[in-house]
Amino acid sequence: MYNYHRTPFEIILQNIFNILEKYEAKFTFSIVASIAKQDLIENIMKSGHEIASHSLYHVKHKGLPFETQLHYISKSLELLSNYGANVKGFRAPYNSYDANTFRCLNKLNFTYDAGVRREESYRKILQPFHLIVDDGESRFVSFPVFNISDESLDELPQQIVLEKFLEHINNLPENGLSVLQLHPIRIGQKKYLSFLDKLVSHITTIGYEVPTLTEVVNKKCTMPAICLTGDIDCLSFNDYLKRI
User: How far apart are the C-alpha atoms of 84 and 99, rounded to whole Å?
Assistant: First the structure.
């Protein structure tokens, strides 16, 4: 993380924007509200991308009392809204959920949850789906998130990771959808820009759209589609030290 944060976050974002613009691709950024800044929000929105909540603090929500989770998530909405963001979606830090988390999303009228569900039972779901919350169908939809993320780039050669992503994309059915998790702090680094470029180029070359998650919910895209998402939980190494 120290090496990653040696690159100013503004440059990291602009690197990502430059590639996405080439292919008219959209990105959904889940942001921890306590580290968000006005210029960050404005920069993302004016570039045509979406902002979602990554809660107030980057802490595991699983096991926290309902009222605590409700405070964190509702406060994140308030702060992000104050910066001008129209937040419809949520992803829990560390992808850490429990029944209380989903109750909060219902209560706060979220449109979608983009949590990573890597369990085997979720891997064959290739369209947005509703969870069962308190014996009823959730008001929000959940998205099928690919079980491999850009974190693999820290351990494996870029070409191997790229091939895993492309194999997954190529096997989507005609009406399928997949959400890829790509952390901006990593994929915006100069050494990974070719990975991002090849990934988005392939998606668009085979005719898939790259919409925001809200565009999928509002049926403003055609299937199959690939959604690019990533979490912003630190803008500097000092933010990272505070988090840990």
Answer: 30
